[in-house]
Amino acid sequence: MKEQIDANRRLQGPGAGLQITGGDVADAYWRSGRQDELVEIIRYAISVGLVPMLFTHGQTLFEQPQFLERLVVEGGLRQVAVHIDMTQAGRKGYPIQRVTSEADLHPIRQQFTDLALGIRERTGATLEFAHNCTVTRRNIDHVPEIIRWFLADPNRSLVWRMLSFQPEADTGRTIYSEKPITPADVWAKIQEGSGFPLRREATIFGHPDCNSWAPLLIARPSGLAFPILQENKKLDRFLGDILAKTGGLSLVNDDANTPPWRLAGILFAHPGFLFRGLTALLSLLQHGLIPKEMLRAILQGQVHTLNIGIHNFMDAAQVANAANDPVTQCRLDACVFKGAVKRNGQWEAVPMCSMNQKAWAEVYEERLEDPALRGQPQIPGQVS
């Protein structure tokens, strides 16, 4: 596993994210009594220059909060992606047949919010969550309610820094709607929930058919929300020039609080950006596009961001036909969510949709055929 982490570091670069996933990893390590191993995986990923994010349904971490705190304190974990939605079956206390709306799951979201705030207070660590939600016909109309719930209390968005809505994809794990949900359907609901006409094309990572994001600025303590990417040509040109100069610079929070210094380095290298930034800000004020309350919060340093968007994964059949579909192949080539897979002795970066389509099965099949692994008990006390 350390070899794979090293490969991800070489392929993705410094400060890149590392998704710790593949089933519910936290649940698997807790049940197998191998919690030390997950702590070491997180610690090692950080030591080589990656930013690990643990992907989970969160039930085990909520039931065993000391395990999460240990991952934070001993491992250095700072980011957790928790999947919560009414399409999930098996969540204790919330049988799928009795969950009739996403609002029924708000108590779970609040429990995790309180858990994170408690850990932050006790440890001083900046633990942050991402909220993942699969969107199907069953819950498409509840997407605005989820967003409104997070925006109702700035303490919630202070913990949950990303709301990811994922239109259903036929990867073999989701019950597919008779009339499948499209990204356009989801984006309309995101705008409804935020209360803003958000620009879907303004922030694109990878291929435009794959990821669309709208960053909001949240003022504390009022909770006033404000879309950062307004319809403003001067601001667009300014941000475009910054991206052209900075490329893939990572601004992910870390314990050393380096993002402000990285931004300061950019301003030092390109002093004209400061003048242009102030000019763009004045333009927004002049046109009434930024509330005075938000400006006061910015000047006082009492703001944080909340990213709301779409991860649009492809169906397995679509990926399998990539050689005959230029758009699908282009999406795979432009993918920004890749994992290192060893093939013929060489590590290569494989797009997540290709992982879902067959790469996971290939990896598992290879491991299951390994005589050394077949002889290992997977649960303490289990007879091989």
Description:
The chain has helices spanning about 1-10, 25-30, 35-45, 60-65, 65-75, 105-125, 145-150, 155-160, 185-195, 235-245, 260-270, 270-285, 290-300, 315-320, 325-335, 350-370, 370-375; strands at about 15-20, 50-55, 80-85, 130-135, 160-165, 210-220, 225, 305-310, 340-345, 345-350. It has 2 domains: about 1-230 and about 305-375, pyruvate-formate lyase- activating enzyme (Alpha-Beta Horseshoe); about 230-290, no CATH class. Helices cover about 45% and strands about 15% of the residues. The chain has about 375 residues and is of the alpha/beta class. It has 17 helices and 10 strands. The radius of gyration is 22 Å and the shape is globular.
Q: From the structure provided, what is the oligomeric state, counting identical versus distinct chains?
A: single chain
Q: Based on Cα principal axes, name the global outline.
A: globular
From the N-terminal CA to the C-terminal CA, the straight-line distance is: 22 Å
Quickly count the helices: 17
* CATH architecture assignment name of the largest domain: Alpha-Beta Horseshoe
In a nutshell, what does this entry contain?
With 384 residues, this protein is of the alpha/beta class. It has 17 helices and ten strands.
SSE layout and pairings?
Layout: H1 2-12, E1 17-20, H2 25-31, H3 35-47, E2 51-56, H4 59-63, H5 65-75, E3 79-83, H6 106-123, E4 128-135, H7 143-151, H8 154-159, E5 160-167, H9 183-194, E6 211-219, E7 225-227, H10 233-246, H11 259-269, H12 272-286, H13 292-299, E8 303-311, H14 316-320, H15 326-333, E9 338-343, E10 346-351, H16 352-368, H17 371-374
Parallel strand pairs: 1-2, 2-3, 3-4, 4-5, 5-8
Antiparallel strand pairs: 6-7, 6-8, 9-10
Helix pairs in contact: 2-3, 3-5, 7-9, 10-12
